[in-house]
Amino acid sequence: MSLAIRAEGLVKHYGETKALDGVDLEVPEGKVVGVLGPNGAGKTTAVRVLATLLRPDAGHATVGGHDVVKNPRAVRSLIGLTGQYASVDEDLSGTENLVLLARLLDFSRAGARAKAAELLEQFELTDAAGRAAKTYSGGMRRRLDLAASLVGNPSVLYLDEPTTGLDPHARNEVWAVVRKLVANGVTVLLTTQYLEEADQLADTITVFDHGRVVAEGRPDELKRRVGGQTLQVRPTSARDLDVVQRILGDLTGTRPTRNDDSGLLTAPVNDPVLLSTLVRKLDEAGITADELALRLPSLDEVFLALTGKREPEGSLA
Amino acid sequence: MTTIALDRGARHGLSLAWRGILKIRKNPEQLADVTIAPIVFLVMFTYLFGGALAGNTDAYLQMLVPGILVMNILQASMTAGVQLNTDVSKGVFDRFRAMPIARSAPLIGAVLADIVRYVVCILVLLVVATIMGFRVQTGPVELLVAVGLALAFGLCFCWASVFVGMLLKTPQAVQGLMFVLIMPLTFGSNVFVGTSTMPGWLKAWADISPVSLLADTVRGLLNGGPIAGPLTGSLIWMVAAVAVFFPLAMWAYRKRV
User: Fold this and answer.
1) B92–A89 CB contact, under 8 Å
2) Less packed terminus of chain A by CB within 10 Å, N or C?
3) Touching check for B16 and chain A: CB below 8 Å?
4) Three-class DSSP category at A165
């Protein structure tokens, strides 16, 4: 599969701070790669380098086969940029913002108007088309942001923390839009502090910390690699907790975690086959369970394990 | 090829100037500092001090209007830096820069849109002055030349503002510094009073300040009188301002964005 974005050994220093400290990144065409990391991990710096806004101190990167430093103009004609650093003009209306960008992309006057109307319709902003962007709600603003980044029909889209600060409803709206774009073949590089967002949208996740890639893989691979799995059992009757705890302990060779309030027993496992063994043993003991599951660790736990830090503030989990 | 590139660059600059003009139309209060403030000065100085300074208010008005015009243009040109800084801080520029357009297009657009500000400022001032009794003593050609010179003056000195605007972090900081620079520059001149009663050090500066020289030129053009001397001085200042601040502004701009 050909790569839309390929970065090798990207380095960017700000004085003593190493915003990027040798980052490699590959994004296959038509895929969504999520860059996950806390504030200051270098996510935005990476996007800015790949969007030709910043020259790397070392390393190189290509987008659609064009070098971001040697041939920025070719890169710019392929990309769309949206997020915390590329915003719309708050004083201008939705239509005016989009017409301006279309004119800058050499649309004719009529063509620019048509493109703006089409995008506003697509993003359900037609009713607000004539209002200044500063009167928009957070979710509407992000939709306009996304529309603005799509004026030039980009084949590669950078979404830099597209849902930071949005309420869950607005977040879902943005996610739906991103999924639709991906279905149309757009390649997406998504940065986020939200583990759930990467899990929801990304085909693969790259975890950044201190300007370095500390892990990458499919969401389920990452989860398996880091935390292993856990068995969870909630006996129907709290009287059975002691028996089940013993069975689970014997089976896994560990001391299961017991929560008397929720009646939930949890134990780490290495072998998924243990689930069926547990079912049989419970059956033999005549115990029924309300909940019985083999669970992958959440991305929060993955993040903690990979970076040695609590998940970043404002997690949606 | 080059012609096409120039053509596109100009068109992009014009599109971005259209944005600036839309912004002025939507936020006419942004023009307050360069329309209302000078009118306040005009009214206050004319009626409070005019009689004392020039014998009667009508004579003072004829002297004051050209000076306020220059002060007005200088103030209008100084907002360019604040505007650009706001755009950069808010991330609007990043969107432009990630597009396949000339890097200088946003800057050209901002400066072109500023011309509209200057014209609005001059028109408002001249209308109010006329209502107060100011009359152009010469002719329409002289008036047009005076307006043209004022516009050129603004376009030359706006690079100082762009430079500061690209150098400082926040729009507020830019605004603050520009205010501190503008006040002594406009008051330390012959705009409001003649320089003959000033202490020597101040008179020495006020006599050669760009504000005084252009004010004298405009007085000559609108009231009749010698213009060659002050015009030469004004032009030297304008060329010097561009020679010094344009490269600095471009350097700071490229460094910043």
Assistant:
1) yes
2) N
3) yes
4) coil
Cα separation, B162 vs B157, in Å, equals 9
Give the CA count within 13 Å in the CB-facing half-sphere of A164: 17
Query: Is A100 a residue whose pLDDT tops 50?
Result: yes
Tens of pLDDT, residue by residue over A178-199, are 898 899 999 999 998 887 888 8
Domains and CATH numbers, chain A: 3-224 (3.40.50.300), 229-295 (3.30.70.100)
Q: Token pair of A47, please?
A: 């996007």
C-alpha separations of A284 from A280, A287, A288, B216 in Å: 6, 8, 10, 107
| Closest chain B CA to residue A73 | B100
Contact B191/B67 with Cβ under 8 angstroms?
yes
In total, the C-beta contacts within 8 angstroms joining chain A to chain B are: 70
Interface test with B, best of A91, A113, A131, A146 (most B CBs within 10 A): A91
Residue A162 near residue A175, CB atoms below 8 Å = no
Enumerate the β-bridge partners of residue A60: A8
Q: What is the extent of the structural domain holding B211? A: 2-256
pLDDT in tens, A151-166: 999 999 999 888 887 8
Is A77 at the interface with chain B, CB within 8 A? yes
A92 DSSP assignment: S
Instruction: Supply the ipTM of this predicted assembly.
Output: 0.81
A-contacting residues in B 62-101 (Cβ below 8 Å):
90-92, 94-101
CA distance A210 to A45: 11
pLDDT over 80 (residue B3):
no
Please name the member of B8, B12, B98 whose beta carbon is closest to the beta carbon of A86.
Answer: B98
Nearest to A79 by CA among A93, A69, A64, A94: A64
Neighbours of B148 (CB within 10 A): 10
- Chain B residue with minimum CA distance to A153: B99
User: For residue A101, which residues of chain B lie inside 8 Å, CB to CB?
Assistant: 95, 99
* Cβ atoms of residues A58 and A9 within 8 Å: yes
Structure tokens at B256: 């910043």
- Starting at the edge strand found earlier in the chain, the sheet holding A257-259 runs A257-259, A264-269, A229-235, A289-295
Buried b / exposed e over B53-63, threshold 16 CB at 10 Å, is bbeebeebbbb
Report how many domains make up chain B: 1
Q: CB distance B95–A87 less than 8 Å?
A: yes
Judged by average pLDDT, the poorest of A89-93, A162-166, A294-298, B210-214 is A294-298
Residue with tokens 């907790």: A241
